[in-house]
Design a protein that fits this description.
alpha+beta; eight-stranded antiparallel barrel
Length: 238
C-alpha cells in the first residue's frame, strides 16, 4: 500500500466534523478483511513507520457528567481528553461534542506532552470556552493502544485500526485490556466509506464502543453501562 504523509492526510481528510462508525473485529480476521480494501488506499507513514502508539487521558467532573451524558445518551454530551502521539511526542487537548445528525465535532489545542496528565490553566480555559461552562474536572481514565491510519481517496475519508487497547482507571489504578480484538473506525462525511461496506460484506456491523465510556464501564461495575452492554458482554467480559 502506498504511503501518505501527515501533512497531506490532514489537508485531504482532516474531518474534525464527521460521522464515526466503530467495529470490534477478532484480530485473526483483520488481515483477510483488509485484502479487500479500496484500490488506491494509502497508509499514514512517518519516518518509515506505519504503526503508532497513542495515549489518551480523559477528564470528567466529580459526578462524572461526561460519562453519564454518554451512558444516558443525552443530546448535549461531551468528552474532554489529552491525546499524545507517543512516537512523535506531539500532544493536544481535545473536546469532542455532538453535531447535527449524530456527527462528532472535535476541537483541539496544541498541548505540552509533559502536562498530559492534568489540565493546565490554558487547558481549562480552552475547555470552558468550547463547552460554555467552568465545571471542575479531574483525571478519570487512561487508554493506550497502537493505531494504523488509512486514507481512502474515493470518499476523502479515513479508516483507523487500533490494536492492543488497554484501559487504566485513574480512580482505582485497575487496568483492563480488550483481548484478541481490533477496533476499526471509519471517519467519513455523511456517506459510508468503502471500508464500511467491506466490513458489512464480512458480517460486521457498527457497534457502540467508546474508549472512554466502555473503558469506564469495564472498570467500574457500579456505573450505568447500557449503551456498551453488548460490547462488554461479547468482547470485554471474557
Amino acid at each position: 500500500m502506498m504511503p501518505i504523509d501527515l501533512v497531506e492526510l490532514t489537508e485531504r481528510a482532516s474531518l474534525q466534523s464527521r460521522i464515526d462508525r466503530k467495529y470490534v473485529v477478532p484480530a485473526q480476521a483483520v488481515e483477510g478483511i483488509l485484502r479487500g480494501i479500496e484500490l488506491g488506499a494509502r497508509v499514514l507513514e512517518i519516518d518509515g513507520q506505519r504503526d503508532f502508539a497513542y495515549e489518551s487521558v480523559y477528564f470528567d467532573t466529580p459526578d462524572l457528567t461526561s460519562y453519564l451524558g454518554a451512558a444516558h445518551r443525552r443530546r448535549r454530551r461531551f468528552k474532554l481528553r489529552t491525546r499524545t502521539y507517543v512516537d512523535s511526542a506531539l500532544c493536544w487537548v481535545e473536546v469532542k461534542t455532538r453535531g447535527p445528525r449524530g456527527s462528532t465535532v472535535k476541537t483541539r489545542l496544541p498541548y505540552d506532552p509533559d502536562d498530559r496528565d492534568t489540565l493546565t490553566d490554558e487547558g481549562r480555559r480552552f475547555a470552558d470556552d468550547v463547552l460554555g461552562s467552568d465545571a471542575a474536572v479531574g483525571k478519570t481514565l487512561v487508554s493506550t493502544y497502537r493505531r494504523t491510519t488509512l486514507f481512502l481517496p474515493a470518499t476523502a475519508s479515513r479508516t483507523t485500526i487500533d490494536t492492543g487497547l488497554v484501559w487504566t482507571s485513574a480512580l482505582t489504578g485497575a487496568s483492563r485490556a480488550l483481548p484478541d480484538r481490533v477496533v476499526i473506525e471509519t471517519k467519513t462525511g455523511s456517506t459510508p466509506s468503502s471500508t464500511d461496506r467491506l466490513l458489512w460484506r464480512h458480517g460486521h456491523r457498527p457497534v457502540r464502543i467508546s474508549k472512554y465510556g466502555t473503558g469506564m464501564a469495564a472498570l467500574h461495575a457500579d456505573l450505568p453501562h447500557h449503551p456498551w452492554r453488548r460490547v462488554l458482554d461479547r468482547h470485554v467480559t471474557l
